[in-house]
Design brief:
Length: 185
């Protein structure tokens, strides 16, 4: 294990006095608040900015984007750089906030949950925040169940069970949406 300094927790006076929500929203790691800011900026960038709209078009149908003069290779390169930046940010958050040290295997299946969050939110950054909070809440419930002598296998399974349920719901919603769109045509 490699010890690290970590980032400080920020106590926000006005928010910390709110009943119930104060403990959840205040006294969090600096990177948590930065993540919320990045999600809002990402939502604006991807859905309200020319560069973001072009980037989404390239992801959906690169040939069409290229036919109207968009440099697909340039946009892909920039998006891969941004992806690496955000992955590095996530890794630093994992290493410097929760455990305050790096150890092998510390992700413990978090990548699978992260992929589920992306699918569940359908790529919308603001929805990803709420989906992440939902999955995080499920994981905290599994930790809280330890005091009730619930079998450890059930506790470890709970976040993944939630993942399967959430993805099933999204799949059903998307199928119904597809049927309605097909019926409208």
């Amino acid at each position: 294990m490699i010890p690290s300094g970590g980032f400080p927790n920020l106590q926000i006076p006005m928010i910390s006095s709110i009943p119930y929500l104060g403990n959840v929203l205040s006294n969090q790691n600096l990177l948590v608040y930065l993540t919320f800011t990045l999600a809002v900026a990402g939502e604006y960038f991807l859905y309200r900015n020319v560069f973001g709209i072009r980037l989404r078009a390239i992801g959906e149908y690169p040939e069409a984007a290229q036919s109207v003069g968009i440099d697909v290779t340039r946009y892909r390169f920039i998006s891969i750089l941004a992806s690496g930046l955000f992955c590095g940010f996530a890794g630093s958050f994992l290493t410097l906030s929760g455990a305050s040290m790096f150890s092998e295997g510390m992700t413990a299946g978090a990548g699978f949950i992260a992929l589920a969050v992306v699918f569940f939110s359908q790529g919308r950054p603001l929805t990803m925040i709420f989906a992440s909070l939902l999955f995080g809440y499920t994981e905290s419930i599994s930790v809280s169940l330890q005091q009730f002598k619930v079998p450890s296998q059930l506790m470890l399974m709970l976040p993944y069970l939630m993942t399967v349920v959430a993805l099933t719901i999204i799949s059903i919603v998307n199928q119904r949406k597809g049927r309605h769109e097909a019926a409208a045509d």
